[in-house]
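Researcher: Next sequence.
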Amino acid sequence: MASIVIRNTGERIEGQENVGEFLTNQGVLYEHWDVTKLPLALQGNCKIGEVEKQQILSVFKEEIESLGERNGYQNWDVVALSEETPNLEELLKKFEQVHVHTEDEVRAITAGHGIFVIKGSEGLGYFDVELEPGDVISVPVDTPHFFTLMEDKQVVAVRLFIDATGWVAHPIQDPQFETSK
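Model: Next structure:
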């Protein structure tokens, strides 16, 4: 179950209904998928290959297609990161830069954990969305944010795109983020 930490105040928001309401008010889509549908060998497993990635897409076919139809996403894949990922630390440094996209950034966490750091509405500043298996989030186009991993440094996520080439990050400098660290 996702939880939120407001960086300016340290306030924590928990519970699916409270998290959903907060994110909706920020223009961020939040849903929850039932990860118990996954075969036991995939539940909590972040060290997967192409065969397992295809299994995940198959298990969540209905949810993926529904989200795609509602929001115009036409392409999807699965990304898996763990301590076995080559150059993981370099990859994370690349992720941990505030940026925007010309389309939504969508993640459905199926194993492991991740954090979206998102710039909220005026006066709120940045907030962290700590994601757990089953959490689905869509950060809207042109919203300053970045994604990183939690302490266990492992995640498996379904990614959805409008453009077949995927999204491109456009880094920005935001003094408000620097003061919220």
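Model: The CA atoms of residues 95 and 147 lie 6 Å apart. The chain has five helices and twelve strands.
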